[in-house]
Amino acid sequence: MTANVHPTLQQDLAAVVPNLRAFARSLCGNPDQADDLVQETLIKAWKNQASFAEGSNLKAWLFTILRNTFLSERRKRKREVEDQDGVMAAQLSVHGAQSGHMDMIDFRKAFATLPEEQREALVLIGAEGFSYEEAALMCGCAVGTIKSRVNRARVKLCEILGVDGADDFGPDHFAQAHTGAAFP
Amino acid sequence: MQADANGDARPVTAVRAQAKGPALPPEVQGQIGKQLRQVYGQLLSEPLPDKFSKLLDQLGKPEREQ
């Protein structure tokens, strides 16, 4: 079996599992498929731990593995993918049934209509707090491309959700807008 | 190239991504970001199935035990 190069890797991986699951769910709406993706990612990370440089960003490394795994599996079964994309909105909103809050259900539905590359960029920047530079490295594209995707995603969400002015905001929007470090 | 009315000399990358389309007002971005983090936070806080800790335990065991 693979030599354990990083003594704390097991605990470090465990700590990132919730993030990997959430990211996987953002990429493919199907919860079972998302969990398979996370398991595959953990196994690959373990086997390839020698290629992880101690001190670099473990979460970014794992997210990159997960993303590459997702894309290569999808290439393998191209026909199934079209089905997956078709049912994604429904699956994300099924998850939404757990929350009674109308705003969040609407947001999930709107989010699910975004193109995959925009969902990915928005989650990496807006939810996970990666820098544009980190996200660009992870996605293998230019920083400007990530910025553009995030911006288009936000604009589209605003259109769908009808957010267009201060009147739509709750009392805490102001603080959020000015302290949201993960959302520059 | 010409300095703008504010004499803004920041590098292009520091300026909000206005070149890529209409930039949203900060409060609108904040509202979208807040909802995104709420929804994502719900995913993050979901209980983890046992299969993940089992898998990690298994990975950590020496080969002959697997």
Can you describe what's shown?
The complex is a heterodimer of chains A (184) and B (66). By secondary structure, chain A is mainly α. Helix content of chain A is 71%, strand content 0%. Chain A is built from nine helices and no strands. Helix content of chain B is 45%, strand content 0%. The radius of gyration of chain B is 24 Å and the shape is elongated. The model of chain B is unreliable at 1-8 and 10-20 (pLDDT under 50). Classes of the chains: A mainly alpha (184), B mainly alpha (66). Chains A and B meet through helix 1, helix 2, helix 5, helix 6 and helix 8 of A and helix 1 and helix 2 of B.
Summarize the topology.
The complex is a heterodimer of chains A (184) and B (66).
Chain A: H1 9-27, H2 31-47, H3 58-76, H4 78-96, H5 102-112, H6 116-127, H7 132-139, H8 143-161, H9 173-179
Chain B: H1 26-44, H2 50-60
Could you give a quick summary of the protein structure above?
Chain A has helices at residues 9-27, 31-47, 58-76, 78-96, 102-112, 116-127, 132-139, 143-161, 173-179. Chain A has 184 residues and is mostly helical.
The residue-averaged pLDDT of chain A reads 81
Query: Helical percent range of chain A?
Result: over 70%
Report the span from N to C terminus of chain A.
43 Å
Unreliable stretches of chain A, pLDDT < 50, 5 or more residues?
A: 89-100, 169-184
Summed over residues and divided by their number, the pLDDT of chain B gives a mean of 74
Structural class of chain A: mainly alpha
Q: What labels would you give this structure?
A:
heterodimer; A: 184 residues; mainly alpha; 9 helices; globular; B: 66 residues; disordered N terminus
